[in-house]
Amino acid sequence: MDIEPEVLALIQHAKRVTILTGAGVSAESGVATFRAYKEETQESLWSQYDPQKMASIDGFRENPNRVWQWYQWRRNELKNKEPNDAHKAIAKWQQSKTQNVTLITQNVDGLHQAGGSKDVIELHGNIWRNHCLQCLADYNGDVDGVETVIECPECGGQIRPSVVWFSEALPEQAWRDAESASYSCDLFLSVGTSSQVYPAAGLAALAKSQGATVIEVNPEPTESSVVDYCIEGKAGEVFKTLNI
Ligand code: BV8
Ligand code: ZN
Fold it and tell me: Which residues form a coiled coil (predicted)?
């Protein structure tokens, strides 16, 4: 795949790079994305389940065990998944001495960390962590194979996955860090996201508003109106070509 020289130059000469990743960056690791990706007629995760039921506080309150089991299924799906070339290339880029690179992810799979990234701004939490819905205490017990909601040892409440559900606020510190990284970059790279979920999808517009160039990496351009350039390709292949 070839990348236009002008785009390549923008990426190589940027001083402060902010990267926002979505489910597409894990697609080449074999992880289902949330919305069907036409070319691969990949089974879309959400199409099997109603997201408002599964990834929402109302869904959990209505049927805690069903939501808990969906997350246990997803954790099982993730167990044998490895970071791909995109995760590894981004981790290497973050070590750059000449460019300041900040990584923000909407993903909850932990594959950026597995690929070597140290500082990851996790806007939507992390599927490998759990906490109590009622008293918010972290729960560090082993949940492998546990099929029903665990009772909180601190308060008797319900243990839930530490991900951000629809209509829940994003973690304050993560959102502040993501906003400031978007306000202060000269290049905003949106990788493998359909840019449909807010407020994460609004970060590119924040970056654009202060003069950053917005580049998207996606096999199919999204409707995002703030994108300056789209590198049409799979994240792993694009980052391999970029060789940064
Ligand atoms: C909040 C964690 C308020 C859980 C997730 C109407 C209009 C605007 C907004 C709203 C609205 N109604 C409601 C809202 C708000 C809502 C929202 O945005 N809804 C959307 C659907 C309209 N947002 C919220 O509820 C957020 N909270 O607003 O709170 C508030 C404020 C203060 C106080 C209290 C409350 C919370 C949103 C977080 C939800 N949690 N995940 C879990 O994972 O189970 S979201 C979920 O979607 C994932 O995190 C995922 O990352 C995220 C976004 O999806 P993408 O990552 O983009 O994935 P997708 O499949 O869509 O796209 C993949 C892309 O990759 C595609 O473009 C594809 O082409 C591409 N691709 C495929 N293969 C490759 C590739 N790209 C590169 N390489 C490849 N190989
Ligand atoms: Zn508790």
Answer: none
Do residue 39 and residue 110 come from a single domain?
A: no
Best of 70, 166, 190 to mutate for ligand 1, by most ligand atoms within 8 A of CB? 166
pLDDT in tens, 169-214: 999 999 999 999 999 999 999 999 999 999 999 999 999 999 999 9
Task: For the full predicted model, state whether its pTM sits above 0.90.
Answer: yes
What is the per-residue DSSP string for 188-202? EEEES--S-STTGGG
The CA-based angle 167-227-187, given to 5 degrees, is 95
Residue range of the domain that includes 157: 32-80+129-163
Percent of the chain with pLDDT over 90: 85
Q: Which two tokens stand for residue 148?
A: 């029903």
Beta-carbon-side half-sphere exposure of residue 125 (alpha carbons within 13 Å): 18
Residue with tokens 């089991």: 69
Distances in whole angstroms, Cα of residue 91 to Cα of each of 45, 104, 110, 166, 167: 27, 12, 13, 29, 31
Catalytic annotation on 131? no
Identify whether residues 238 and 176 lie together within a single domain: yes
